[in-house]
Amino acid sequence: MAQNASMEEFEALLNESFEMDTPEEGSVVKGKVIAVEAGQAIIDVGYKMEGRVDLKEFANPGEAPEIGVGDEVEVYLRAAENARGEAVISREMARREEAWDRLEKAYADDARVEGAIFGRVKGGFTVDLGGAVAFLPGSQVDVRPVRDAGPLMGLKQPFQILKMDRRRGNIVVSRRAILEESRAEQRAEVIGKLTEGDTVDGVVKNITEYGAFVDLGGVDGLLHVTDMAWRRVNHPSEILSIGETVKVQVIKINKETHRISLGMKQLQEDPWDLVAVKFPLASVHKGRVTNITDYGAFVELEPGVEGLVHVSEMSWTKKNVHPGKIVSTSQEVDVMVLEIDPAKRRVSLGLKQTMRNPWEVFAETHPEGTEVEGEVKNITEFGLFIGLDGDIDGMVHLSDLSWDERGEDAIQNYRKGDVVQAVVSEVDVEKERISLSIKALGGDKFAEAVGGVKRGSIITVNVTAIEDGGIEVEYEGMKSFIRRSDLSRDRSEQRPERFSVGNKVDVRVTNVDSKSRRLGLSIKAREIAEEKEAVQQYGSSDSGASLGDILGAALKSGD
């Protein structure tokens, strides 16, 4: 009976074992470590199946494997039996399947996942997310570019899944998103404690051309270069250095963008409050040139107070010249305050006003008629420009070049660089003009020669040339021409050939033309005038005396 019972039990157990389903290949099963040898763990997965797994599959990146006999683990059953009759199992694939299930749920819930960066690949890094490998783009490592990722390798930290595709086995994660989120929370907390006008201490984190970023304890504020000091600051590094602790004032807080504007100069006294008192109009001060532009130069009167010397106020004489040709950066100059606009914080300065107007000085030292000497600076179609004392020019008009030649001809005798003498004829200070005359150097010979001669005067001239149309005569060195019709009252005597060179002839002056420098002369007019005078003296036309009698009496009287 006992034997029959044992047979029945065995049969029941055998049937039970047959009825039990063997695990499917490609599924995750539980197993127990029964031995560790030769760098492998031997695992009993039940169903009278054992398999081997390399110990490295039990280790996290950068860590030693932690596995021992008796430990229960989950493995992936790749095949029920290999050539050696062993199950083909994988701990890594089991972890991956487990990880994907977990990561898909986290991705759906937009939750953070924990992982460790363990390798570097093109364009970024590889991250172990507890069995699944993800890609971390270089741009998603930190909020700012990371030059050395060494300290982050193997460190367990949170990541955000940006994208995942189980079929292709692709996962993309971001560390930056986590940092930005925590940073935003921290910023919101810090900003919530700040109000505009607060004075706080901060540490200079970064310096740029336009300002500096200051850490206020978890949140950065921008200290713009224009708010660092009342004076001009060319570059923030002039007064700040990275790591320096500075006291700043909160100027503005943008609650939406969490941007904070800071200022340092607001904690100092505004020098513009006393500008009108310190620098009254028309006062002269010494300043330093801080910047030069095409339209003028900025001059610092004191730290924080700058004024502009416009190019038109830089020099009395140098027009259309770049300011850099007159002054240089850092040069000390004397300037006059011309205008102050406190509202716009502007001061207009003058450089030339600290020196006397050279045209005024010239007018005082060179009255009209003064002889001057200078170099021909320029020759134009209307005259010469002569360089004079005080770096100013005077002009000799074509009409003032010569008494005898036309101006267009006389100007051909001059070249740039010639040193010439001239006489000051006029100085117009307001228009900044000086008129000179070269022909006036020897005086006006015509005026001297005809000084006592008037229209109607009788003068004696010398015949210097005989021509068909008349005769050329000379009076006190001044040449004139008497036309044929003016040679005699009698038409038959109007013959030039009856005169000879060297003859002295009495003539009547009919015109004195100072502009053309000519005397109008006539023998005929003299004869007519003499006849009228004789008639008035010795008779009249109604007295019965003939003209011959009157003239005869006049001739006898003359004898």
From TrEMBL:
GO CC, any one term: cytosolic small ribosomal subunit
Spans traversing the lipid bilayer: none
Keywords: Repeat, Ribonucleoprotein, Ribosomal protein, RNA-binding
Boundaries of every S1 motif domain copy: 26-92, 110-176, 197-265, 282-352, 369-439, 456-524
InterPro entries named in the record: NA-bd_OB-fold, Ribos_protein_bS1-like, Ribosomal_bS1, Ribosomal_protein_S1-like, S1_domain
Record SUPFAM superfamilies: Nucleic acid-binding proteins
A GO term for molecular function: structural constituent of ribosome
Cross-referenced Pfam families: S1 (PF00575)
One biological process term in Gene Ontology: translation
CDD domains in the cross-refs: S1_RPS1_repeat_ec1_hs1, S1_RPS1_repeat_ec2_hs2, S1_RPS1_repeat_ec3
The protein's role, per its UniProt record: Binds mRNA; thus facilitating recognition of the initiation point. It is needed to translate mRNA with a short Shine-Dalgarno (SD) purine-rich sequence.
Recorded family membership: Belongs to the bacterial ribosomal protein bS1 family.
Protein name, as recorded: 30S ribosomal protein S1
Origin species: Cribrihabitans marinus
